[in-house]
Design goal:
Elements lengths: L6 E6 L22 H9 L5 E6 L15 E3 L7 H12 L6 E6 L7 H9 L6 E6 L2 E2 L3 E4 L3 H5 L8 H6 L4 E5 L14 H14 L1
Parallel strand pairs: 1-2, 1-4, 2-3, 5-8
Antiparallel strand pairs: 4-7, 5-6, 5-7
Length: 202
């Protein structure tokens, strides 16, 4: 395999999404896919392997993700940092130079964005997209940083790792609003669905 084919993806879908008020991962899009399934289907063609993080009690079939390898995050309720740590503990022995961290409610990232980020992925680099100067997802972490990610705690997520290594960070400007579009609240869904329809026609 080439180096670029040895980049993994870790999709975070073990949170409670309390601001949304219900399980947003099951929200249907126009093509009948759940929000989480649509995100995974968008992500998977671009990475060597994908792992989706779920809570221990989640029904992968109901989420339409039973065809994907699942990591059960035993510590998900303790915060996003713990959930990311569970993901990186699960992949630490896999052969790869880097791993992308993605959110499970972002199905509108364009293929060209993934290609642009992967072009710069390396073991000692953190690569993230920007749209009009705003940092988005996914963030690709070189293998050098996996140990720190596997030790994360609390709610902050991976930002602390990014902040500790500014010289390793590469920001890639992309013409893709999808890197900023997620569904924190029900009112976010309509804009996301509209963009998803547009992306499907590209």
């Amino acid at each position: 395999m080439s180096d670029k084919s040895r980049v993994l993806a870790v999709v975070l879908a073990a949170g409670r999404g309390r601001r949304f008020g219900r399980d947003k991962r099951r929200e249907p899009l126009d093509d009948g896919k759940t929000l989480l399934r649509a995100t995974l289907d968008r992500v998977s063609p671009h990475f060597a392997q994908v792992r989706v993080l779920l809570r221990p009690e989640d029904d992968a079939g109901a989420l339409q993700v039973d065809s994907y390898p699942v990591v059960r995050s035993a510590n998900a309720d303790r915060g996003m940092g713990f959930s990311i740590a569970d993901g990186f503990v699960a992949i630490r022995d896999m052969e790869a130079i880097a791993a992308a961290v993605l959110l499970g409610d972002m199905p509108c990232i364009e293929p060209e964005t993934f290609r642009a980020l992967l072009e710069h992925a390396s073991a000692d680099r953190i690569v993230r997209p920007e749209f009009h100067g705003r940092a988005g997802h996914p963030v690709i972490f070189g293998r050098t940083f996996w140990g720190e990610l596997a030790g994360l705690e609390g709610e902050e997520g991976a930002r602390s790792v990014i902040h500790r290594h500014p010289d390793a960070c590469m920001h890639i400007e992309v013409d893709d609003p999808g890197v900023l579009m997620d569904a924190d609240r029900p009112e976010d869904l309509e804009a996301l669905r509209t963009r998803y329809r547009i992306i499907g026609r590209l």
